[in-house]
Amino acid sequence: MWGAGQIQSGSWSLTGRFILVDSDRSPIEFSLVHRLRGDLQVGLEYDQEEQQLFPLVNWRFMDATDEHPALALGTSSAWPSTEVDGNALYVTAAQNLGAGFSGSASLSYGIEDERFRVPASLNYALDEAWTGRLIYDGDNLHPILTLRRSPMSYSLILLNGEEPTISVSWGF
User: Fold this and answer.
1) 3-state secondary structure at position 102
2) CA separation for the pair 30, 166 (Å, rounded)
3) Looking at the DSSP assignment, which residues form a beta bridge with residue 106?
4) Residues 5, 171: contact at Cβ < 8 Å?
């Protein structure tokens, strides 16, 4: 749920996130993710302001069916949360809800602040190229609009609903 996002094409994805206004957050963050298998991604996230690297792992150990959601375990930076620094550990349940809708809910644990949170997301595929998403990080809501044009995707994110941020991902 919290990681660098979906790989667009190929087995690697490079993502940059750029906050367009003054903020308490790092203005630039990057991630490089490698899909080892269809159910396992590993990578690194880099916080430019803190000059820190964070491991990223996302392992989907159960696929979704009509009877149960997909389940995944992982770790990543706690982005987009403003309330958490460092890495978070998480378990996530995700399910298609029908008619272009999907959702997820997680239980996450912030390693630095030693606090549990319950992030969630609701996604709507407007068509094959455009997706709308609301991410609740356990403290704040972040609307996202994404355009996917393989091998690239471009997102406009309103952190906390007010700080415009651009995210660009390249799958290769």
Assistant:
1) strand
2) 12
3) 92
4) no
Predicted local confidence at residue 9, as pLDDT: 57
The three-class DSSP label of residue 20 is coil
The whole-number pLDDT of residue 4 equals: 40
Condensed to tens digits (0 to 9), the pLDDT of residues 3-35 reads 444 555 579 999 999 999 998 888 999 999 999
Mean pLDDT for 117-121 is: 95
Among 9, 53, 55, CA closest to 29: 53
Going along the chain from its start, the domains and CATH numbers come out as 12-171 (2.40.160.40)
- pLDDT score for 1: 39
CA-CA distance, 10 to 65, in Å (whole number)?
Answer: 26
Q: Which residues pair with 31 in a beta bridge?
A: 15, 45
* CB atoms closer than 10 angstroms to residue 131: 20
